[in-house]
Amino acid sequence: LTAALWAIGGVLQGRLxxxxxxxxxxxxxxxxxxxxxxxxxxxxxxxxxxxIAVFIAAxxxxxxxxxxxxxxxxxxxxxxxxxxxxVLLMGPASLFVPGLVCFLLAxxxxxxxxxxxxxxxPRPAALAxxxxxxxxxxxxxxxxxxxxxxxxxxxxxxxxxxxxAAQALGRAFVLRDAAAGWVAAxxxxxxLSDSLLATNRFVAPLPLAQLWxxxxxxxxxxxxxxxxxxxx
Length: 232
Prior knowledge:
Blueprint: H1 2-12, H2 18-36, H3 39-63, H4 70-89, H5 96-115, H6 124-144, H7 151-175, H8 178-203, H9 209-227
Helix pairs in contact: 1-2, 2-3, 2-9, 3-4, 3-9, 4-5, 5-7, 6-7, 6-8, 7-8, 8-9
């Protein structure tokens, strides 16, 4: 209810478009339905949220003179990969690795988005920090009982998401504008969401896990799709 009221207020005040408000409300419903154990609502609203995000990014790109650029195509690809991952992770455990692969591809697309105009990893210190966090998280999962069959896929995923966050942070340091800062915050929320998900799945159940995992995930995606803009 809080998220829905905030989104409606944002539309009335001109801070959010109707599509952005619908994204917030679909994300809130997906999060609440998962936390409350309402699978019929969750299976409808979880893919809906990212479908709206794809629509927002594609519509914004096509509205600009010249149509969709490489930046826009990579951003849409990242969102589509996330949508596919969302759908697969709602399925049986056998679809976990395919879902992980979809999110890995989404992060590679996001790295491509955040590279344009600033190059790869313009702040090596940011890369060192995110890789160190990723390595610590992976060690924690290993000690917590990460299944042997998932050790390589999870290691690759941790490496890629750490690189994605480092690329977003480096971009923010180079561009030094509010939009790039919000995108970097979104990338960090993505790392937090995946850390919570992995801890809950492989180490120990967390209280209200679905609430925290999905809330941070949707904050991440919303910040990225709302604030990502082509350089220059």
